[in-house]
Amino acid sequence: MGIDFLLKLPGLLTAIVIHEFSHGFVAYQLGDNTAKKAGRLSLNPLKHIDIVGFIFLLIFKFGWAKPVPINSTNFKNRKRDTLLVSLAGPFSNFVIAVIVGFIIYSGIILNNLLYNVLSIMLLYNVMLGIFNLLPLPPLDGSKILASLLPVKLEYFIYKNEKYLYLILILLILTDTINKILNPIINFSLNILIKIIS
Known about the structure:
Layout (H helix, E strand, L loop, with lengths): L1 H28 L4 H4 L13 H10 L17 H28 L6 H20 L8 H9 L2 H9 L1 H13 L2 H21 L1
């Protein structure tokens, strides 16, 4: 568990911190300083880690971080800017995955330990990015979907978030989530490998 934990830690922290920071940073650029006031425009892992969610990530590969506070009333264009802020997290994970992938396949990494750390980092960023695109609360995908829908349907999603959240819990508890995500993750990794190799 010791060495396994140490190998996973850099990848997990990178994926979570960059993801959450990106939400807050994009929101700030679009006129909402809520995350900045809360001290979330930081790369300090302690600002973003939820300890229980982090343990779940280590053990079950599914977990959560502290949600970045966003006040959409501060946006000039609420639906558009909410969409951009929601996309920022997963997009940042994919960018990190591509960068790490290029480093891995460049051949400059000769140390096996570092190679393993970077490989896990790539995997976790792809996994977190794809997982968060699922259109279920409280994931980013639900906000992305809501932002693209007419106002009445958007309101319906936000009004029923607590019930829709149970769908995600059920998918995780029944392991159905892996049956849904694993083919998508494997397909994405294969595409990434083709791009960078």
